[in-house]
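Bit of a strange request maybe. I'm writing a small parser for structure token strings and I need a real example to test against, not something I typed by hand. Could someone generate the tokens for this chain?
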Amino acid sequence: MSDVKRSKTKNNYSSSEEDDTECLYCSHLYSESTGGWVQCPVCRLWAHCLCAGVEDEDEETEFMCEKCAN
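Reply from user aminoacidic:
Good idea to test on real output. This should exercise your parser:
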């Protein structure tokens, strides 16, 4: 699973495309969030680090969403 390292993170920057991004777990929008985000490298969907169970300060944390992991 070493090839599933975090591919991208979102932290406190904004564009119109990112403002429309929904968390794949809770469906809240990026524009309404203050915490970090992580992207699944397989399906390319985004999730709050908190919802995904990932430490948002840890750039080396591996993440794959539940759908892609199964």
